[in-house]
Task: inverse folding
């Protein structure tokens, strides 16, 4: 596919028709010099919730309200199914998400309470069965097979991590990605990253990131905290008027259910809520524009990202950059 066909705007091709497992490698060359923070990039909110621990011996995470922790302790058979129905935000594995075109992953790290090992897990409501080390190695294997794709890994929350566990996590990150880790001094264009072999941008939401050249600072995440699509859109339109952050940033089109919503929709799940609102949300996404201007967006993250036209819709937004160039 020639870039001239796309730039002219008269070709039949759409960026949404690119092979999503390698969409970055297939972008037309005018976009190779566009910084990643001016591209539209699809992301996965709470990326590692497809492997939550269904074992009753696994506790709910310690960020949950005391009331829920007590109910879970004494009424587990009744409460646990609700927790799972609303805690799972992605059903596909990390490799499947990357194959579908996801290039930003929201990774919430935790050390299980009363665990004598140094193993780290992900969590959302409950802890995962897969360790952080296992998942990072899967990402590494995927990147080895896709040398021109770049992923942004956002590490955050760090529930129950001591300074020692932070250093162990940092060692794991470095040992896994080695020369693929992009230093925070680098120019974030695909052309530059390809030339240097960098494929991984690690953002680390902790003050230790300032001491390490390979840890990028926290990436701002616009979160609307709404359970209705229309309210979420209204909130983001308000924020857009004040301008976008300068570097990488995320707009999270993930809806947030509160206890009242869950109790008044006892037969529903988060997936039911998300899939019913995707048509409205994706209509809004189609109207968005990447780039540097006030009101433009960058990374757009959602739930159940592999089960709708979410990823191709976000990638297609980059055509708007071509039409200006």
Result:
């Amino acid at each position: 596919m020639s870039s001239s066909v796309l730039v002219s705007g008269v070709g039949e091709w759409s960026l949404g028709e690119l092979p999503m497992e390698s969409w970055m490698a297939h972008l037309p060359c005018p976009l190779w010099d566009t910084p990643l923070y001016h591209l539209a990039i699809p992301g996965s909110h709470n990326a590692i919730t497809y492997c939550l621990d269904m074992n009753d011996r696994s506790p709910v995470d310690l960020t949950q309200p005391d009331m829920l922790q007590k109910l879970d302790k004494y009424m587990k058979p009744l409460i646990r199914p609700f927790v799972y129905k609303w805690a799972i935000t992605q059903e596909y594995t990390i490799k499947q998400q990357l194959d579908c075109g996801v290039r930003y992953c929201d990774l919430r790290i935790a050390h299980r309470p009363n665990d004598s090992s140094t193993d780290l897990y992900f969590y959302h409501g409950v802890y995962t069965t897969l360790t952080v080390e296992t998942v990072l190695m899967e990402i590494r294997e995927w990147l080895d097979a896709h040398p021109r794709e770049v992923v942004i890994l956002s590490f955050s929350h760090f529930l129950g991590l001591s300074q020692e566990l932070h250093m162990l996590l940092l060692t794991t990150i470095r040992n896994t990605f080695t020369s693929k880790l992009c230093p925070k001094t680098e120019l974030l264009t695909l052309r530059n990253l390809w030339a240097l072999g960098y494929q991984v941008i690690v953002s680390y939401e902790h003050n230790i990131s300032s001491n390490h050249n390979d840890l990028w600072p926290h990436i701002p995440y616009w979160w609307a905290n709404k359970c209705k699509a229309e309210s979420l859109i209204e909130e983001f339109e308000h924020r857009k008027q004040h301008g976008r952050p300068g570097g990488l940033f995320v707009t999270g089109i993930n809806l947030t259910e509160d206890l009242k919503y869950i109790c008044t929709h006892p037969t529903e799940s988060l997936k039911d809520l998300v899939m019913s609102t995707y048509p409205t949300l994706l209509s809004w996404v189609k109207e968005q524009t990447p780039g540097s201007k006030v009101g433009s967006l960058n990374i757009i993250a959602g739930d159940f990202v592999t089960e709708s036209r979410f990823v191709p819709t976000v990638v297609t937004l980059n055509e708007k950059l071509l039409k200006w160039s």
